[in-house]
Amino acid sequence: MANGQLAELHVYNGQLEKMWGGLMEDAENGSEADLINELASNVMGVLALTPSNDFDDFVGIQARVTKMKTMLSLQAKDVKVIGIWGPAGIGKTTAARVLYDQVSPEFQFSTFLENIKGCFKRSFGNDHQLKLRFQEKLLSQIFNQKDIVVRHLGGAPQKLSDQKVLVVLDEVDSWWQLEEVANRAWFGRGSMVIISTEDRKLLKALGLEANQIYKMKFPTTDEALQILCLYAFGQKFPNYDFETLAWEVTELAGNLPLGLRVMGSYLRGMSKKEWIDALPSLRSSLDSEIESTLKLSYNVLSNKEKSLFLHIACFFAGFKVDRVKSILEKSDLNVNHGLQTLAYRSLIYRENGYVEMHSLKQQMGKEIGTGTVLGIKLLKLEGEEIKISKSAFQGIRNLQFLDIDGGTLNTPEGLNCLPNKLRYIHWKQSPLRFWPSKFSEKLLVELIMPNSNFEKLWEGIKPFPCLKRMDLSSSEYLKEIPDLSKATSLEILDLHYCRSLLELPSSIGRLINLEKLDLHYCRSLEKLSGCSSLKELDLSDSGIGALELPSSVSTWSCFYRLNMSGLSDLKKFPKVPYSIVELVLSGTGIEEVPPWIENLFRLQQLIMFGCRNLEIVSPNISKLENLQTIALCKHDDVPEMSYGDEVFTAVIVGGPDSHGIWRFRSDLNVHYILPICLPKKALTSPISLHLFSGGLKTIPDCIRRLSGLSELSITGCIILTELPQLPGSCLSLDAHFCRSLRRINSSFQNPNICLNFAGCYNLNQKARKLIQTSVCKYALLPDSKLASYCQKSVFITFASRMCFVALEIHHMPCLGTSQNHLYIFEDSFSLNQHFPEAEVTTFSELSFLFTVDDYKALVVAYVIKRRQNILKTEKLTVSSSFLSIANRNFPPSSFFPNSRVSRVSSFALSMEESTAANAATLRMELKKTMTEILDDGGVSEDRGETDGALVAVDEAVRILNRLREVESKMPDSATSSSSPASVLEVPKEFKCMLSRAIMSEPVVIASGQTYEKRYIQQWLMYKVTCPKTKEVLSHRLWVPNHVIAELITEWCQVNKYDLPKPSDAPVGLFPDDIDLLLERISSPSSVEDKTGAANELRRQTKRFADVPAFFVAEIPESITRLLTPLSALGEDIDSNPGLQKDIITALLYISCLEENKTAVAQHPLAIPLLTKSLKQGIAKTRRNSAEALWELSKLDSNKILIGNSETLEALVHVIKEDHFTAAIGAAYRRRGTKWFQKVWFPR
């Protein structure tokens, strides 16, 4: 019997004994029948304690059930109620079943009423009988009696009001099913009610709060794959060679458990070819079981709600909520209420302000919506074009939505009409030059036609009463905008990059709802009309020049964002209204920030990069309490430019609200500009100040005035030479790697201050002495004379043997990278107060173990034998030269079987450097250990003592071996690196996660992460997220990370490691991007998309050496996903010559890398597909297949895999072909096939 079963049996027996004893004591007070009944009931209760394993294979369900149980446990009410809410097929019933199974043993009476909406359908008229039948069902299952009759609606409450019951109401869909249960007086104290439903509104009507409603979440991607595999393969992972297909089906199911179960069951037992044949059907139509389940929620909707659902499924999934409301506002669909109803019923969900719908529900909606054509959506097809006549839309009178991707439609004659019911037009790259003459624009809400060929729109004034958004951006031939005075609802007008636009109509000023106007790069535009309703205006790089803003701008009470960057002729600071929040004036000719800026009390951002004439900044800027970001620079702020020593950055964290962040960046004189711009509230509030500059020589005097300064960081100020007096409030000073710092004109009077001078190698003796003698929480500073400090340690010996281990952590930055530094700290502790676990009154020995954890914090392990009340405080000076080496993941308890070994371990595991000091220490510790072993005699009647002695002997042997190793290396230690660069492991902090190599030009981006410059530049050209944290960046700017650069340089010098020189070589795509290319290649996309992705992958693997490097090592199933499309073609491998050529060529470039050869050759698809491609394919494909096999054959272990007769025969055939001119062919022809066989099969 297993140990777990034995444990359960012991518990079970113990419960029976306790129960039987209690019953016998009370037997005299009741009849024998009562005793038997009670005994039977209690025995059944005990037996029910054994949990069911019926749900062990339900992936991810336990974590969700645990959350539900937590929600229930937090409720303080007499009757606890929880609602489980989610869409059909997500697993609500399963979760309720598992929860019921786990908590039902706590209840004498319980029931699970399954599928209530199916069993109790409400009919028209009086539903009194239906309610009575519901109560009868409930009571019958609770009391396990079949013939219970309820004659009035008070029957159930009478029987249940004094009973502790567990009731699960599964798949509730109507209020009548809950309105009686809503009165919690139905059930006795301690009862629990669990309700599952697709309609959140019912739970709200029941009065449940947010913390009583559990929203069922979709399984994660990995969980979804496991669910599919359980039904398709009977295991939680796919069968070999089914991985790509399994992922594709998982995606088709949209992670919906119902879809995963049905599709997996349907595919179970099928061959790979049958899976591939079934995929088109799975993509195009819903399984009947899935459709019938999902359709239940749709069928109960009203006609208007059904119509709204179909609108979203066919057209508006993925739109912003406000846009959906706006476009459908004038319809009769009652959009606001309808969206709420659909969300309550789990048919849609809102995420980050967008309307989203599950893919299977979307597919269901498209299959339902087959009636009148209300919308047309044409996707762009490469190489395909549809020509239509000028009257093509004449017969489609009910069309409301038109979405055409660029280049799909060609209209040689233009269009003479559009349907009058159109509400939404989205037509990229429209070929139309003129607006259709026949079109009633009365219902049009959005007109989005970027990159169009329009020269002008319409003549005169047209009524657009509903038009809210108009986007004609990048229409380079557009010269004028018509009179829009009747477009009274217009909110957004986007005309950016309309380079030929000469003027805006004066009617713009009469648009009372216009909020956003974008005129970026309208280079020909020289005049601007005012509009008092504007909130955002972008004039950057336009032709406005030095013209003043409209005089009415001061009355624009809602105006909060203005961008005038690039207007080099603008000399004066623009007069903006007091409502302004963001002001961007980069690249202007502004000379002064005026005193009246103090009136802009709402201003949060002032950005002025590249303002070369800026000389004067008014001190009134410091009065702006809401200002968070300031940039006042003469240099441009572009990623391609490195500022060197000219730009400084100051960041203040804290303030009156303790959460504020103030960022300031400038290349003006720091001693002039920083005192001017420091916010006044920072002078007295508790703050942290971070200064960063490669050109800062002295700290500005204004720092002394910061009476609330608690933390000062000057990390990376590499030419800073002097540190002035700091405020007495300062609790932390981080001067890490201020390598030029020599003098400290400040005394540290706060005993709680933390000092970090790591890397400050030029500190004079006076400064060093000041640091070492200051009363502080800790201090870190460099020192080359470490031997004397390494010998200082603390041992206090008394008389007993019980061992007790306590840990304290001292957080100290940069311990992991600060070699040859001193770490000074002072601490004390009371055993009674801090470690009450040590219960005895005396102790014999106290030892310390110093290590560094994964977070670079110093861990001090106090090893105590017996207990004394107070330990004497003593200052310790510890060398980080062995602290960093001691960074190991050993549990402290493994070091201390007894005090003797603990003391040896604390040093033997620390001293890993090949130095004379270490050798001396090892000899000393060896002598102590041997003495103690001899004194103990090596023999004891106590088994524990004997084991301890044996461990000590083992420890002595290990120290001796280590001592010999150290001494053998000592002659070379002074003259050579301890580890050659070829095998030296670069610290992960020094590697760029994009290049996976040591950084030569480290730079910091907005997220605070550091990357290699050219790699992050490439990343930021296409993305606005941080590669590591995935957060959206506030900007794409970067600054050099001088600190990391200096640390890398120092590390390379110490370890004789050759740091690569900065390179301007182009950078390829990153693993995520290559992964997306593989998704396109292996997914059921169009042939053109597959071929395009394969072509790009081929180009990447050829041009960039790092792409083949991470292709195999970092991308899951990369070779399988690359080759699957060719394998799926079977004998018709050359049916798509372009796809075949690109995949085979990419495989060739991947195979050229030494570390990839084994993985490629051993993959079951690689060699067979290369062999097939030797026979079938265009000449280049066959040649590249031969070259790939040649590359793979360079490893002896691959020759046997390749050298079967079929492959050799195909190779010889290719070699003999006249058009085979590659170098490999020449080698083959020159030496012959016999040589080829000899090379591959040496005897």
Automatic annotation (TrEMBL):
Q: What class of enzyme is it?
A: transferase
Q: Does Transferase count among this protein's keywords?
A: yes
InterPro entries the UniProt entry points to? Apaf_helical, ARM-like, ARM-type_fold, Disease_R_plants, Leu-rich_rpt_3, LRR_dom_sf, NB-ARC, P-loop_NTPase
Q: Which PROSITE patterns match?
A: U_BOX
Q: Which CDD domains match?
A: RING-Ubox_PUB
Reaction catalysed by this enzyme: S-ubiquitinyl-[E2 ubiquitin-conjugating enzyme]-L-cysteine + [acceptor protein]-L-lysine = [E2 ubiquitin-conjugating enzyme]-L-cysteine + N(6)-ubiquitinyl-[acceptor protein]-L-lysine
The record's listing under SMART domains reads: Ubox
**Pathway connected to this protein:** Protein modification; protein ubiquitination
Which UniProt keywords are present, listed alphabetically?
Leucine-rich repeat, Repeat, Transferase, Ubl conjugation pathway
Q: Which residues form the U-box domain?
A: 985-1058
Q: Which domain of life is it from?
A: Eukaryota
Report the EC number(s), separated by commas if there are several.
2.3.2.27
Q: What is this protein called?
A: RING-type E3 ubiquitin transferase
Which organism does this record belong to?
A: Brassica rapa subsp. trilocularis
Name of encoding gene: A03p009070.1_BraROA
